[in-house]
Amino acid sequence: ILTVLLMCLISNHRHRVLDVDLKPKHVHFNEHVAETKAKLRHTRIELANQHDDDNAGFGIREMKSIDVIQEIPTDIVLDQFQKNALFSFNSKDVNADILKMPELHFLLDMKNPCWLEPLTAVDPYARPLPYLMRRPHALDGVLQYNSKMFNNSKNPYRVRCLPYVYILGVQKCGTSDLYERLAMHPDFHPCVNKELHWWDNLPTAVMANLKTGRNKFQQFLSLDEYISYFDDAALRISETKETHGAAAEQMGITGEATPNTLYDNKNWREYPGNADRAEPKYLTPHFMHRIHSNAKFLITLRNPTARLYSGYLYFSDKPTLEQFHKWTTLVVKQFNKCVSEASERKCVHETYHPTNELQLLKLRLRTGLYVVDIEEWTSVFPKENFKVVTLEERNKDPIRQMKDIFAFLDMDPIDFATEELIRELHPVNVNKRKDATSLGPMLNSTKTILDEFYKPYNEQLAHLLNDPTFNWA
Question: Which residue numbers delimit the Sulfotransferase domain (predicted)?
Answer without folding.
Answer: 165-434
